Every structure is written in structure tokens, then in C-alpha cells.
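Batch queue: ligand-bound targets. Current item pairs a single chain with nicotinamide-adenine-dinucleotide. No template structures supplied; prediction is de novo from sequence plus SMILES. Inputs echoed for audit trail.
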Amino acid sequence: MSKPVAFVTGAGGEMGHLLLPALKSRGYDVVALDLVPLPPEIGSSCKAAIEASILDAPALEEVFRRHHPQILLHLAAVLSTKAEKDPDLAHDVNTNGTVALFRLAREEALAAGRNVVVMFPSSIAVYGLPDARAKEAAGAVREEDWVRPAGMYGINKVYGEMLGSYLTARARKAGEPGLDFRAIRFPGLVSAETLPSGGTSDYAPEMIHAAAQGRPYSCFVRPDTRLPFMTMPDAVESFLSLASAPAESLTRRVYNIGAFSPSAAEIREAALEHFPGAEIGFDPVPARQAIVDSWPADVDDRSARADWGHAPRHGLREAVRDYLVPALRRRYAAGAAPAR
Ligand SMILES: NC(=O)c1ccc[n+]([C@@H]2O[C@H](COP(=O)([O-])OP(=O)(O)OC[C@H]3O[C@@H](n4cnc5c(N)ncnc54)[C@H](O)[C@@H]3O)[C@@H](O)[C@H]2O)c1
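Prediction returned. C-alpha cells below.
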């Protein structure tokens, strides 16, 4: 019997590094697409790897015509810091690219007579708290609250969430195959395999990678800045748990998930516990601080825990001690540069 095909856009990024091998080990044939060539260590997990933009309509059509994916995992995006610098590019990639992909997924579902599961990594950037006092008062925000993003990236993600949810409801109402859309609003993600670029929660991974390399680090937000974070292995596990959850157990299309919510000072302390000589200072950059100040300090993820068993393995202590430190010691002792 042929294997189900998973189509992953933005497959060469941080999340793709762990997601591609995880999909392969769960029995999928992986078709990957990215602007950049896939590094060999993840390219080997793929049945096909395509170097193209999601704005390249013929390239996308060719993927659907040739491979008929049962599941689309749409990772390609311009992330928050870059989106603020170039909102037109962000709109093109994050919105127009998403519209084109969802249209092809819908056509595939209709032609094949079965739903196409569409997995969408949204973000806590969809939230927009007006100021630090509101952020503190809000505590762990629910999915329904404070969805009024202050930045382009958050605006793009809200549109993707709403379009996917709408198309799913529309197909159901019409009684025809269509999108089975499922989204997670990820917190900041911390990976030992890669260094991030272009996100505004990057200070946490950057701080720990720098400490492991013995390089000084200047953090671009204030020490008291608090955001939810999660390790990349927990994020990938949750994404795949939601993808395989029975449709009848889902009470919503878009889920918050959390794991730990440290202040920047607490992340520094955790790094110093393992790398006591690390030089970590703070030099807030107002534009990036303003973005982070509009994001919640924590998220209410009760629906994800109840509906499909979201249960992250790593709190801050475990993330640093059991995941990051051993992997980073190995990586940098071997003289490796960060992967990206
Ligand atoms: N990393 C995080 O902290 C975080 C948090 C919340 C949500 N997310 C979301 O998760 C997804 C994956 O994030 P990531 O950390 O792997 O990001 P990343 O920046 O490492 O990877 C994104 C990938 O998309 C590719 N890409 C960009 N424009 C493209 C285009 N036009 N066509 C094809 N590919 C294109 C890039 O080359 C890159 O490899 C993104 O949608 C992101 O918004 C990430």
C-alpha cells in the first residue's frame, strides 16, 4: 500500500529540521518545499525536495498534481522581526502564499473525494495587549481574548487562522470534502539544532546558544520581560498530536499551547547555572521590546490538554538541563558553527 503524502512548505527552517524526520518515522512520504536547498541531514527524510517559493503558482500546482498530499503542513513564513521591516513582503508570503496553498488544498480535496488536513503554525503574535499593565492583568490569555495584533506578522497569522477555519466550516456545511484545518498558536520556540533568525522571541535561544559557545550576549529585551516558550521537540510532538487527533475530539480549530513562561532574567539564570562564566547583559531595542510587550506573558492551553492531550515534557529547568545543555555541549565541543 502506498504511504500517505505530507507536503511541508518552509521545510528547511528551524521547525522543519525536527518535523521532517518525525513525519518520516510516522510513515509519511514527505514532499518538502523551501526557497533554500534543504540541508542534507533533513533532505534524506524526503521523497521529493523542491526549491521554490510558495508564490510560484506553477511549482505549487505541480506538487499537488504529482503527489496528491493528504496533509499539508504550511510552515513557510516571513517571521515577526523581518515582517516589521518589510510588511509588503510579509503580506505577500504570509497572506497571498497562504491563500494560494489553501485553494490548492481545497481543489485536491474535491478532486480526491476526501478532506485534506491542513496544519498551520500560528503564533502568540496574534495577541495584542495594549501595554505592560494590561499584559500583567491578563495573565494566561484564552484563545478568544486580545486577538488584535499590533504587528504585521500577527495580522497575517490571524488571517490564515480565519481563512482555514472558514473554508473548513464551509465545506462541512456544503457536505463536501474540503480543508480539515488545525492550527496551533505556538509560543517562542527554542531549538538546540538550529539558531533562529527573524523572530522576536529569539533572545531566549540566542542567549543559551551564546552561553554554550562562551560568547558574550546582549539581550534585546528588558530582564523582567516575560513570554511563553517551548522546546522544539515538544512543539513538533504537539503539532503531530493535533494532526492525528480524531476530528470528533476537537472543540476548536485554533489552539493555544504552553510549556513554561520565564522572564528574560530567569532564562539568564538558567543559562548561568550550566555556563557560570557566561556574559549576558541587557540592552533593550525599543522596536523589538514593543512587540514583545504586546504579546501575552502566558497562555491558557486547557483546550489543547483536554481535546488532544497536549503535555509538554520540558519546563524551563528540564529544557535547559536535559535538552539544550547536552546537545549544545556536544555541538560546540565538536567545533560546529550554529546550523543557521
Ligand atoms: N520559531 C518560532 O519561535 C515560532 C513561533 C510561533 C510560530 N512559528 C511558525 O512556525 C513556522 C516555522 O517556523 P520556523 O521557526 O521553522 O521558521 P524559519 O524562519 O526557521 O523557517 C521558515 C522557512 O520558510 C522558508 N520560506 C520563507 N519564505 C518562503 C517562501 N516564499 N517560499 C517558500 N519558503 C519560504 C524559509 O526559507 C525558511 O526555511 C512559521 O510559520 C512560523 O511563523 C514559529
